Amino acid sequence: MASKDLVVDDEFCKQMGNYFMKKGEELDQMISDYIAALQDVRNKGIISGDVAIELSSYISYASRLKKQIGTISSDVNKQINAFLTRVDDADQYLF
Q1: pLDDT (tens digit, 9 = 90+) per residue, 26-68?
Q2: Less CB within 10 Å around the terminal CB: N or C of the chain?
Q3: Hey, is 65 helix, strand or coil?
Q4: Torsion of CA 34, 35, 39, 42, to 10 degrees
Q5: pLDDT (0 to 100) of residue 94
Q6: Which phi and psi angles does 48 have, rounded to 5°?
Q7: Do residues 17 and 74 lie in contact, with contact meaning Cβ atoms separated by under 8 Å?
């Protein structure tokens, strides 16, 4: 028979928050490495011409992604913690 109780696994939620933080940092680093590689190609391989101009434009747009994933990951972690706090406040008689 199905239970009407809501069970929140605090530890799992916290682990997921940490997972998102770690993956966000890893993705931010990948983006930085990607942009550095593009800049290396631009500076050493495609020095002039239309392709160089377009590559510079692409690098400019790609650079906007720097630190964005980490910020989103941090926001997710904050939301998870806020959720757990709200659950604890609402059900404090159980804890």
Answers
A1: 999 999 999 999 999 999 999 999 999 999 999 999 999 998 9
A2: N
A3: coil
A4: 70
A5: 58
A6: -145, 170
A7: no
List % helix, strand, coil for the chain (3-state, nearest 5): 80, 0, 20
Place of tokens 């706090």: 85
Tell me which long-range contacts 13-20 makes (C-beta under 8 A, separation of at least 24).
13/80, 13/83, 13/84, 14/80, 14/81, 14/84, 16/80, 17/76, 17/77, 17/80, 17/81, 18/77, 20/73, 20/76, 20/77, 20/80
- pTM metric for this prediction: 0.77
Q: Do 66 and 31 contact (CB within 8 A), yes or no?
A: yes
